[in-house]
Input
Amino acid sequence: MSRRALEELNRLIRENRVADYSSPNLALGMRPVRFAPGSASWVWPEQPAAALNPFGTLQGGYLALFVDELLSTAIGSVLETGELALTAEVKLCYLRGLSPGRLEGEARVVRRSRTLAFLEAVVTGPDGKPAVSASSTWAILRAAEERR
Output
């Protein structure tokens, strides 16, 4: 993705333009609900059969993809023009298995400095109880730093 396209994406996140948000993962049924300063909310109403493991529960990798959408849009909401963020670390805790059904996710920026941001996310299952928790560290770069 070009720098210009990335800046436009972050701008639409900052402006809460969920209808204009584009990602290949939308094809899986994931949908942004709200972008706000330092946070993002998503829903995944139905999961495709490909997202299920042989036991009929959701594969962890697909849940990680959902969490990545949560985290990347939350960090995008606090980036200024000329900044980009890269995942430096992410930890996922699968608290329980999930059968297919409506999933909701929330992510928030816990702290942001000039060069780092710390985020957390929670995914709840159809019963509204937490099923996945995540924490993540992001490196924040500026155009001049990117060239080094």
Summary: The domain at 3-146 is CATH 3.10.129.10 (Thiol Ester Dehydrase; Chain A).
